[in-house]
Specification:
Length: about 80
């Protein structure tokens, strides 16, 4: 099933990139461009990534406020681009 229609990226490809170490939508975008055009697939990518082991995610869960703010800004940026 396609996740990103703009670049023809499938769920399988997103999962493969995640297994190779991409653990954020931005890292997925760097690997295959998914989420960089219209942005409508970013939430689906986030859902596919789930809450796996990601060093940056662990920092957020430990309460690193600066990193939390950066991730919130990224999410807001994607939502405004999608609108």
């Amino acid at each position: 099933m396609y996740v990103c229609s703009c670049f023809g990226v499938t769920e399988k490809q997103v999962k493969e990139h995640a297994e190779a170490g991409a653990c954020t939508p931005r890292q997925i975008a760097s690997a295959c461009k998914a989420g960089t055009d219209c942005g409508s697939c970013v939430r689906r990518i986030q859902a596919l990534l789930g809450r796996g082991n990601c060093p940056r995610r662990e920092l957020v869960e430990q309460g690193m406020p600066a990193l939390t703010a950066d991730l919130a800004d990224l999410a807001d940026e994607r939502l405004s681009e999608a609108a």
